[in-house]
Here is the input.
Amino acid sequence: MDIHEYQAKELLANFGVNVPLGALAYSPEQAAYRARELGGEKWVVKAQVHAGGRGQAGGVKICQSDTEIQAASEQMFGRKLVTHQTGPEGRGVYRVYVETLVQIEKEFYLGFVLDRVSQRIMIVASSAGGMEVEDIAAEEPGTIVRATVEPAVGLRDFQCRQIAFKLGIDASMVQQVVRIMLGCYRAFTELDATMVEINPLVVTSDHSILALDAKMTFDDNALFRHPQISELRDKSQEDVLESRASDRGLRYVAMKGNIGCIVNGAGLALATMDAISQAGGQAANFLDIGGGATADRVAKAVRLVLSDQNVQTVLVNVFAGINRCDWVAEGVVSALHEAATDVPVIVRLAGNNLEEGQMVLAKSGLPIIRASNLKEAAERAVSAWRNDAAFRALPVLPT
Ligand code: GDP
Ligand code: MN
Here is the structure.
């Protein structure tokens, strides 16, 4: 789960990370009012969307008066901000963050990520801040400093000092950097984050060090133990179907084709998509019902996939290890009875309670097309989608 910049800054500040003074606004008028409350003469208005690259896309504006703040916010509110990270559809702006302007002397990059190779939290830092980390890696690879954290001892002061020196930070400011790094690390581990990114981390003209931008991503599977983090979720920033799925304990990924896939497990999802494309079709999405799915959860999955306008055929492919074929079949049947759709549905089941599952499908009286293996399932799905001769020749259940 992603959160907004202002939320990340508030969380990080609680861990001792220095951030600029700022206030949130839900309208242009409120933004101007917030700026007066903050005081000072210059401010930055920042569109709050779950994406970076706002600066280049008109989502970060420096302002010198109430009127400028109001005008800058009016440009942002209610619009879709399209940055190189959002894709062409952009992200809606419903909140802006107003900050007092900081005089920047130098910008750095500071990131904390999970490194899957070393299975450690890795710190990635660079003296070429302000640009995207991918661009730093491509254009200024020599400036990148990396360090992994030994989990048994945690991040140590000396490691932070080492990184700070490698970045070329003046000795008089190293202690501030150490504090920020330790704060980010503690926030990362204590809140079950998977990413903390400060870009830029800045040295100001009066020699203090601040997180000028902040981004945090959290491990969805750990959110149950951080209700205060779950509350920060902003569905306006998520894909509608993906967000509806995650509310129902399902994992949904939207794609470009017309065959909706209901599967269990990411590996089977990929295999199913491959089989579909080998058979000449393209998946519209995949929806992962997970393990131990009840008939109710499966029915929700079918309804959700059918609600996708691009779906012209549904393929259910479940290899029941922890799941039960009969529950999956019951879910499919109950959703289809209720939906009364004419979208062809292909079901391939294997594993636990297979016979019971087949029985449920056979007794349903629905024109469900069965398949006995993945290849056959994919071929039948593609020919159903094309409505070709092979599809019309298929026997209708019960078989
Ligand atoms: P992003 O483009 O979405 O990553 O948004 P950022 O919050 O990183 O802002 C983009 C850029 O705007 C920064 O790299 C800074 O150069 C500039 N910027 C943001 N806030 C301030 C500020 O308070 N003072 C100054 N001088 N520049 C700022
Ligand atoms: Mn940034």
